[in-house]
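Hey,

Quick one before I head out. I ran the complex with iron/sulfur cluster overnight. Inputs first:
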Amino acid sequence: MIKVDVIKCLGCFSCTNVCPNQNITREETPETRSIHWKKCKEECDLCVEFCPAKALTLVPFDQAGEEPTISFDLVACKICGARYATEPMLKRIESILPEKLQKDSTGLDWIWICPVCRRNIEAERATKQIVLGRTRKIP
Ligand code: SF4
Ligand code: SF4
């Protein structure tokens, strides 16, 4: 049986992705996500191995408590307001990434910006560079 340390869990969904027996289920709304662990007898260990936060441990089935559920509010993008990731996930990235990599060349704090806005900003910059390059070539 899997025991979950709810304090350590990041809400990343890795365990739900790797469980071959649908023992770990997930629910998502535009603003929240939750994970539910059913009692598991298979003990294949995949979820334990793939958890980046080391929040899961195997315990004997008869020592299993309640089936836990954890819910997270998703963090809103600082640009568009769309909710895109859990706060523990973003704080974890912030804690392991060197500070100089947390901002881009313009000082944009990209960890707290959703992937869609990041892509749009990058595309806009790339377009400006291309236009600038072509303008310079015109005699
Ligand atoms: S031990 Fe294996 S079967 Fe059980 S919850 Fe984890 S991944 Fe799923
Ligand atoms: S893999 Fe670990 S951190 Fe990610 S949701 Fe599962 S228990 Fe939480």
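The chain has one domain: 2-128.

Talk tomorrow,
K.
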